[in-house]
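Might you be able to consider the sequence and fold that I enclose below?
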Amino acid sequence: MIIDEPNASETETQSTAQGFKLAFELKSWFRDILFAFTIAIFIVIFVVQPVKVEGTSMQPQLVDQERIFVNRFIYRFSDIQRGDVVVFWFPKDRSKSFIKRVVGIPGDQVEIQRGIVYVNGKRIWEPYLRPEFQDFRSFQKTIVPSGQYFVLGDHRNSSNDSRNWGFVTHSLIYGKAIFSYWPFSRLGLVE
């Protein structure tokens, strides 16, 4: 039996074809990785921003040193709602950012009687507020001006908020807290 051995030109052709195939595969992988990286950068810059919580004013919902993601894009398409946990530039020092819960929206009448919050004359239900974090201060009845918000921390007896320095202008609010990612034991949605 005679077996034909491939000649040198056939071997070179197969080797070149395999080289082109490998180069095409690598180019395809590189393109896909670059595209994914570009999309990730776009999302981090324009949509979701990682933030570290500093302080105890939002306990028990958020704790000191907890890491969360903030949606920076959401308020371009929807209104800020009562109950939203928002991140904003501190009105008295714009080099600092704060995180608080929106209690009053523009046009609302807000009043606090011995620690109980009333909005538009009705007591609001605050399931996130623990009795040990409540304070019993009062705050006189006030109307939230147009384009501004009344915000409070969930740890009321430890929070520096609208009761101390007033309203937050819409333009200072840059995102909504949406997801906690560190520590892993607190992984989940921010509600």
Observations:
- The CA atoms of residues 72 and 175 lie 4 Å apart.
- The radius of gyration is 28 Å.
